[in-house]
Amino acid sequence: MKNAKTLYDKLWDDHVVRTEEDGTALLYIDRHLVHEVTSPQAFEGLRIANRQPWRSSSILAVPDHNVPTTDRRLGITDPVAKLQVETLDNNCKEFGLTEFTMSDIRQGIVHVIGPEQGATLPGMTVVCGDSHTSTHGAFGALAFGIGTSEVEHVLATQCLMQNKSLNMLVSVDGDVQAGVTAKDIVLAIIGKIGTAGGTGYAIEFGGDAIRALSIEGRMTVCNMAIEAGARAGMVAVDATTIEYVQDRPYSPTGETMKQAQAYWLTLHSDEGAHFDKVIRLNAADILPQVTWGTSPEMVVAIDSVVPNPDEESDKVKADGMRKALTYMGLKAGTPINEIALDKVFIGSCTNSRIEDLRAAAQVAQGNKVADNIKLAMVVPGSGLVKKQAEEEGLDKIFINAGFEWREPGCSMCLAMNADRLEAGERCASTSNRNFEGRQGQGGRTHLVSPAMAAAAAINGRFTDINKLT
Amino acid sequence: MQAFTQHSGIVAPLDRPNVDTDAIIPKQFLKSIKRSGFGPNAFDDWRYLDEGGPEIDNAGRKTNPDFILNQPPYDESTILLARENFGCGSSREHAVWALEDFGFRAVIAPSFADIFYNNSFKNGLLPIVLDADIVDDLFQRVSAVSGFQLSINLEAQTVSVEDEAIASFDIDAFRKHCLLNGLDDIALTLKHADEITCYEEKRKQTAPWLY
Ligand code: SF4
Question: Which helix (H) or strand (E) holds A145?
């Protein structure tokens, strides 16, 4: 096909306001999501320059990183965190922006609530001062994280200066085995291409195994595009996408919805479109994944052992592996299913949606958290996810099994609030980053899927979800 | 924004790949609503032996003597030399603010994470991509000469030792222009306000559900 375009090309072209001589483009932003951590300095910048937001209706704000996951009526006890959340509240009031405050049932992790509200729609450009904005690409949107200066830039101009990325296709072909989830797929992808493998690219995820995923699953995959180095990950629009965005508070209705749908269904890569790089994975080869190190690319299948740096020929990589093993307190050659845990965290913008909670609850049902687990917590992604889970009785299943059932927020994904690991503690976590200190200074994080995290809680050690008895 | 034209300074070697933004500035410091004051907490987990926090006075803390930035003359370094994928992880601009506040004006690495790279330019911190071989060579030079210095010339896009250019680097013309002149890019964009409005008008016709 002549002039065949990729999905990314289409999204890009539809949002270019102007182009500089060197190719730098001024890109229009449709949706701007805002949270408390990366926005205060941007609002301050607006005030200093005496500027107003360009289009207030494009903005949806929510506090999520710093909020407590225990009884909300007690407020935030940490004075520094409290000030930051209040600063967001005040900024939203001052500039007339929509905010779901801490007491609003719609409050939750910014990347969970955008889609939940229909504030994220196919074909949009979506930005947020948060690297996991890539999540929203699951809808066939161009979504990427920005820094605080860029937050201010979008507030003031509704645009960003951008250089176009290269196109990468990651195709996961065939069907996955039982017990293998979106999280395992994306961890396997990162294991294959590395944490810098997608740097400079926008990744489109395709292939039967991606097509077969629910929207929740696609969000999990796109969420971690940034862990593969790509600012944006995306999946083409199909019937699954359209069905998900129907009847949400921010979604269009009636004739406009029909018009929108007709456009949305064009949001896929054309036959013969050029990709600068193509990566293929065979879905059937993917087993449940567990990270063993301090970078998401340090990942192996559940039936493997902790790898040996002496067998790595690249010196810089081998050094990195040694540092990771020391930090993680692991020995090369240890079978993954012999690694015992101290804590389990089910939550984060990667895996805190209803489908994730259902998968974990299925494993937890009728079982008990092992004695060596000091804390197993489930933190729903939003107040509405929490409500839905409670309507389905999932909270009871978790509580009966010995899990704690918490209020929504980022929680132990990054441990900005009281939920954290102590030095040396080992955690099975459904979040997206296993960096040193991510879940608390000296804490050791292993990334897994919700079902694998629940299984780890029940057995006290990593267990193949398919071999759970 | 602080302009960048030329700079000479001591090079600090940070010999590990994938230095992430959590390492550059740990999350507890992100609770600040300010843009400055992060320098004493840059690389906090590596730099100190005890745990820090926004309310903790750094003067009373135990520093880690093994960490490079605690050792003279590197405590006065202004150029950071690192391995691939520097600045990966979160979008926190606090990472750039912390490096600048420490005193860094440039970071040299074989590759950078995209968001970090972008954020650097917004704050006048110059990220320089050099071939892995050249970076390797620089690590060797740094370990051979204590207080090893480099000079960076943005206009000429070169990195020099004494007066001899040893490498040149690429940079987008637009970014270079903004950095050389320390331009406020919001003001630049607002010069095109009419075009933005015009785009919106057109888009309202074709995609009314977005407005
Ligand atoms: S859940 Fe974790 S990764 Fe997601 S936005 Fe919150 S802190 Fe970031």
Answer: strand A142-145
